[in-house]
Write a structure and sequence with these properties.
This protein is mainly α. About 70% of the residues lie in helices and about 0% in strands. Helix 5 packs antiparallel against helix 6 and helix 6 packs parallel to helix 8.
Length: about 210
């Protein structure tokens, strides 16, 4: 949002008490902004601590879903909630590495659930779940290309683990072949430079709807 320069000058000239009053009114209406300011001003945890805390929560809850025999549609609803948690984490902490790492964790747990013999589901009922997760997989891998190469080493093991989880499920592997996602991209951590273009073409073909 752009503001008139005269407005900026007038705002800067407001008395401190008035600025404080306006600030409080604004952050009370925007919880995410308030959390972001709290993090930047007080930093009660480092971004990596918050990242690891959220990763642990995702792992614990998806394990809980499996143990309690949740339906796959219910798990999908919760995973959408986790995606929102990741978005909020990134907004508050500006943790771009954490965005990819946390999505890898979510994908590991979500796809791993399909390999869990204790979790009962039919492949037909899992279609919506798998489509959602595969879209997330594509978008997460596209983010890697936007990240400085020095950070890649932090993500390689998790990408490899994810590739092994997908590769351990024949139906899931068959599905990935059908939507033109090469699991071998994950194993050596080597993604096409035009992956974003490739993904758009896949969407246009209607393969991930």
């Amino acid at each position: 949002m752009k503001f008139n320069e005269d407005f900026k000058v007038a705002l800067s000239q407001l008395p401190s008490v008035e600025k404080d009053r306006l600030l409080w009114r604004l952050i009370k209406r925007d919880v995410l902004l308030a959390r972001r300011l709290e993090f930047e001003l007080l930093a009660p945890y480092a971004a990596i601590d918050k990242r690891n805390e959220l990763a642990g929560e995702i792992r614990k809850k998806i394990a809980y879903f499996a143990d309690r025999g949740w339906r796959i549609s219910e798990v999908l609803t919760q995973c959408r909630g986790f995606s929102g948690d990741i978005t909020r984490h990134v907004y508050i902490t500006k943790d771009k590495v954490g965005e990819i790492y946390l999505n890898f964790v979510l994908l590991q747990e979500a796809f791993g659930l399909l390999n869990n013999p204790m979790f009962k589901y039919s492949w037909r009922n899992a279609q919506k779940y798998v489509v959602y997760m595969t879209n997330k997989l594509y978008r997460t891998c596209i983010l890697i290309d936007k990240l400085h190469v020095d950070y890649h080493i932090e993500l390689e093991d998790d990408a490899h683990t994810l590739g092994e989880i997908i590769g351990g499920n024949d139906k899931l592997m068959h599905y990935m072949i059908g939507v033109l996602f090469d699991v071998n991209w994950l194993l050596p951590f080597d993604f096409p430079e035009d992956l974003d273009k490739h993904y758009k073409e896949i969407k246009q073909m209607g393969l991930l709807r």
